[in-house]
Amino acid sequence: MARPWRVAIVGGGITGLAAAVRLRDRAPTGTEITVYEQSGRLGGKLRTGELAGGPVEFGAESFLMRDPAGGESAAVSLIRRLGLAGSIVHPTVGQAALVVDGGLRPVPGGTLVGVPGDLDKVAAVARPAAAADRDGGAPLLPADADVSVGALVRDRLGDEVVDRLVDPMLGGVYAGRADDLSLVTTMPALARAARVEHTLVGAVRAAQAAAPRAPGAPVFGTLAGGLSTLVEAAARESGATIRRDAAVRELRPTPTGWRLTVGPTRDPDDGSRSRRGGRRAELESSQVEADAVLLAVPARPAARLLAGPAPEVATAVGGLDYASVALVTMALPEPELPELSGFLVPATEGLLIKASTFFTTKWGHLRRPDGLALVRASVGRYGDETSLQLTDDDLVATVHRELSKVLGTPLPTPVARHVQRWGGALPQYTPGHLGRVAAARTALRAAHPTLALAGAGYDGVGIPVCVRSGETAAEEIITALGGSAA
């Protein structure tokens, strides 16, 4: 009788955990799944904490309900699989604003990540150079080409649309600049339409029509118990052995699979525990054998592990850069807040904050009877991260001052505050990113079919994308090892 498969997943974020659940569901009975997480906490950028006695997200806040084709997103499907669908809640206030000339203006409707499908609707925020968006008799984007979002939009609609609309929208998601970010990676629906349409406005309308949304259908959701409940449920339902504080330091191919060196950076396990009995001891030793390995870690740690078995892939993967951010959350006693979900800040406004969310306004289930409001601001843009060198106290003071200025009224002194720093959190996808990733994966599959890559560094940001990435990599592993139980 053949022994069960042994699959090692490196990385305990939502990507790795979604992969573990998919393996449990689809791999043959008895498959042994082990998740190695370098830190002491699962979930990666999903982290529900507490402030002033109430729950609050210190990382990702929500997920998209629909996928780009208009179907249920991978995050919602996973939540349903885990039995948490009844906990999904939606924003009670959806209108957001932009800071323009120091004041708040509503985000105009009819845009796709800030790119307008109706020029009249954005005129109050930005003046489009509409005459430039004329039909030149050919599609905007040649087949298989990629450009930066900023380059395309500036050429067709002018600087104000980029600086006041597109850049803050992309900055809120990626902490990057529209002039640097890949159109194909960050706005795939628009890229597909641009390969057919002759004007940018036409491409936006075509992209929107390709994935229609029912009137009133929610765009975003979160879980009433916090997103950490998703992490906990995925870890539990996967049935995987979870090893926290377990750094995978080296990865080597063997004639039958892979050998992982696992242990603290300065004091790796000496292997003596492997002599103390069976499978448990093997898992605790410094040398761990696996039939397949799924790397669900950021690109640079993945590149270090790939340097031995796949040096060319390591070079390609390791070239991806990341932005760092800080999230400053304050509990404010009965502040005067507008009825908005929050606001975005163009870099041209000269503020430290790039976005703010009024948590207890946006999410009705978080509203508190004591009148405390939870307000969060995001700080840090790619290439301009000196602000993150400020102390926590200085960050809080600056954010408090800038929020008061934007709102036009002094905010009360916070009764509690929290600063969450995410170093190297958000991948920066330059044009051609997806092609480079596809080439790297093709080379990796050819050399080592039982080694797979998954995560935001390769496929895009957001919980649904990460879930789908992990599930796809799990399916690749199952295929490489001989097929599923289904």
TrEMBL record:
Domain Amine oxidase, first and last residues per copy: 14-478
Region of interest called Disordered, as start-end residue ranges on this chain: 255-285
Coiled-coil boundaries: none
Compartments, as annotated in UniProt: Cytoplasm
Presence of keyword Transmembrane: no
GO BP: heme biosynthetic process
Gene Ontology molecular function: oxygen-dependent protoporphyrinogen oxidase activity
Keywords: Cytoplasm, FAD, Flavoprotein, Heme biosynthesis, Oxidoreductase
Enzyme class: oxidoreductase
Compositionally skewed regions (Basic and acidic residues) per UniProt: 266-283
Catalytic activity: coproporphyrinogen III + 3 O2 = coproporphyrin III + 3 H2O2
Cofactor(s) listed in the protein's UniProt record: FAD
InterPro entries according to UniProt: Amino_oxidase (IPR002937), FAD/NAD-bd_sf (IPR036188), Protoporphyrinogen_oxidase (IPR004572), Zeta_carotene_desat/Oxidored (IPR050464)
Similarity comment text for this entry: Belongs to the protoporphyrinogen/coproporphyrinogen oxidase family. Coproporphyrinogen III oxidase subfamily.
Role description: Involved in coproporphyrin-dependent heme b biosynthesis. Catalyzes the oxidation of coproporphyrinogen III to coproporphyrin III.
Protein name: Coproporphyrinogen III oxidase
